From TrEMBL:
The entry's keywords: Ligase
Protein's name according to its UniProt entry: Jasmonic acid-amido synthetase JAR1-like
Residues in GH3 C-terminal domain copies: 435-550
Family annotation (InterPro entries): GH3, GH3_C, GH3_M
């Protein structure tokens, strides 16, 4: 553990990673053994008849593959305060809440010291490879991070989003110091009770320390784009605060105001400089390097549902490198990005063989019959569903993520995230994933570029209230678009779903014409506010790309804000 302020030894970290991935098979066996020895007394494992055995063969023979629903009764007992060893040997004292954007409601997931340590290990590993490519000086980082409230469960456990549990852990700050990655904003801003106010103060702190900022990061790229879209609205107010040295009245929380008062001093020269730079920009292109002259890169999760924000992020970043952060979930971490100079669209993640025990279900066979294979047995070019066994009480847990093996780093596979398995648009024999939706939206939104307009955000829904059922795509656009352009966008969306099952079903009208619904400006902000109101952290927010009928409140927000609707005539 890092207790003193010592900088991390980058070469040593890389050396350890190299030797571990060269021996990935043995490291996996040892990791499984350690997990089972530490948790062998847990009721869940006791009931499965392992009888102290820790080898992979016995483990796979005795322990079934599970989903969150299978473990829900066990987790619920932990949440309700049972102190007996249910899933882990040591009691679980903290619960993580998943973002809830996949299923419409957050899942409870156990969180413990071991999971915290694997989190920091992933952070340190990718930091080492990043720093080798893009060395940073000992400055500050504009970290657009937000912590939602931690609450107590009925049984007295601390519950918060996974990011909140990490940010509030004392080791997080020590590790950030050791990684020369101290946040430029005070804790009162990160842990502020209102994310709108925290965001404003993050931007203000960034301006105050603009010369020292070495990189900009957030958990997800959405938060970075959201921050600079907000900057476009409030930049003059920020300049006024800097000029006068007095914080705007929009910040109402005393703890946040007093923390900011310590940083904010009248600085008319800085205010004039920022004012001049903002006026000199063309449509905010290159905003980030103009504001922060010493920034080396921008960092956050940029793959999966975050890919659609890359175009806007590049607009703000100009030629600054965008580096996709590591691959994990509320349930646990999987891999680190050790090739930081690769663009986010091509980012891959090398599995760390000592942070959990990993298996993979091949997807080219019938998934129900396919036998999972081990970490070193996967094949390049194949797609798999990830199964994780963690130090936090999840055993042979189906994560629901689809990954593609793109190669190996020594003996550990490099994975590319493809999609979530359960985020599917399907009515008949059609199967369209989140990635298919994203490609269709990209193709259709190109028709708007001539109008100098952009699709700010999007989602989808399968409407089965009509006969036959049809796909509904929701778009929020940056301005007014001509009717004929939107009609063509709608047709282009319909044609862009090239899945054979979809095309054949459309041709025989087993699936009805695709519907494009344009929603009013601010609709996706309302969805974000809805999730934050439920206790999600802005850092962990992901726009739900496929809204099922069970996610009724979000569906209502979308449907109540529709201003125009178009049906495809493509088939």
């Amino acid at each position: 553990m890092i207790e003193k302020m010592e900088l991390l030894d980058v070469d040593k970290l890389i050396e350890e990673f190299e030797s571990m991935t060269k021996d990935a098979g043995n490291v996996q066996r040892e990791t499984l053994k350690k997990i089972l020895e530490e948790n062998g007394c847990a009721e869940y494992l006791q009931n499965l008849g392992l009888n102290g055995r820790t080898d992979p063969e016995s483990f796979k023979a005795c322990v079934p593959l599970v989903t969150h629903n299978d473990l829900q009764p066990y987790i619920q007992r932990i949440v309700d305060g049972s102190s007996s060893p249910i899933l882990t040997g040591k009691p679980i004292t903290t619960i993580s809440l998943s973002s809830g954007t996949t299923q419409g409601k957050p899942k409870f997931v156990p969180f413990n010291d071991e999971l915290m340590e694997t989190t920091l290990q992933i952070y340190r590993t990718s930091y080492a490879f990043r720093t080798r490519e893009f060395p940073i000086e000992n400055g500050k980082a504009l970290q657009l991070i937000y912590s939602s409230k931690q609450s107590k469960t009925k049984g007295g456990l601390i519950a918060g989003t996974a990011t909140t549990n990490v940010f509030r852990n004392s080791q997080f700050k020590n590790t950030m110091k050791a990684m020369q990655s101290q946040c430029c904003s005070p804790d009162e801003v990160i842990f502020g009770p209102d994310f709108h106010q925290s965001l404003y103060c993050h931007l203000l702190c960034g301006m105050i320390f603009r010369e020292e900022i070495q990189f900009i990061s957030s958990t997800f790229s959405h938060s970075i784009v959201h921050a600079f879209r907000t900057f476009e609205q409030v930049w003059e107010e920020l300049c006024a605060d800097i000029r006068e040295g007095v914080l705007t009245s929009r910040i109402t929380f005393p703890s946040v105001r007093s923390a900011m008062a310590k940083l904010l001093k009248p600085n008319p020269e800085l205010a004039d400089l920022i004012h001049k730079k903002c006026l000199g920009l063309n449509n905010w292109y290159g905003l980030i390097p103009e504001l922060f002259p010493n920034v080396k890169y921008i960092y956050g999760i940029m793959t999966g549902s975050m890919e659609p924000y890359l175009k806007k992020l590049r607009h703000y970043a100009r030629d600054l490198p965008l580096i996709s952060a590591d691959y994990g979930s509320s349930e646990g971490w999987i891999g680190a990005n050790v090739n930081p100079n690769v663009p986010p669209e091509l980012a891959t993640y090398v599995v760390l063989p000592d942070i959990g025990y990993f298996e993979f279900i091949p997807l080219k066979e019938n998934v129900e019959e396919a036998k999972p294979v081990g970490l070193t047995e996967v094949k390049v070019g194949e797609e798999y569903e990830v199964i994780i066994t963690s130090f936090a009480g999840l055993y042979r847990y189906r994560l629901g993520d689809v990954v593609k093996v793109t190669g190996f780093h020594n003996l550990s596979p490099e994975l590319k995230f493809i999609c979530r398995r359960n985020l599917m648009l399907t009515i008949n024999i059609d199967k369209n994933t989140e990635k298919d939706l994203q490609l269709a939206v990209e193709a259709a939104s190109k028709l708007n570029t001539e109008e100098k307009l952009e699709v700010l955000d999007f989602s989808s829904h399968v409407d089965l209230s009509t006969n036959p059922g049809h796909y509904v795509i929701f778009w929020e656009i940056s301005g007014e678009v001509r009717e004929e352009v939107l009609e063509e966008c709608c047709n282009c969306l319909d044609r862009s779903f090239v899945d054979a099952g979809y095309v054949s079903s459309r041709k025989i009208n087993a699936i009805g014409p695709l519907e494009l619904r344009v929603v009013q400006r601010g609709t996706f902000q309302k969805i974000l506010n809805h999730y934050v109101g439920l206790g999600a952290a802005l850092s962990q927010f992901k726009t739900p790309r496929c809204v099922g009928s069970t996610n009724n409140e979000v569906l209502q927000i979308l449907c109540n804000n529709v201003v125009k609707s178009y049906f495809s005539t493509a088939f």
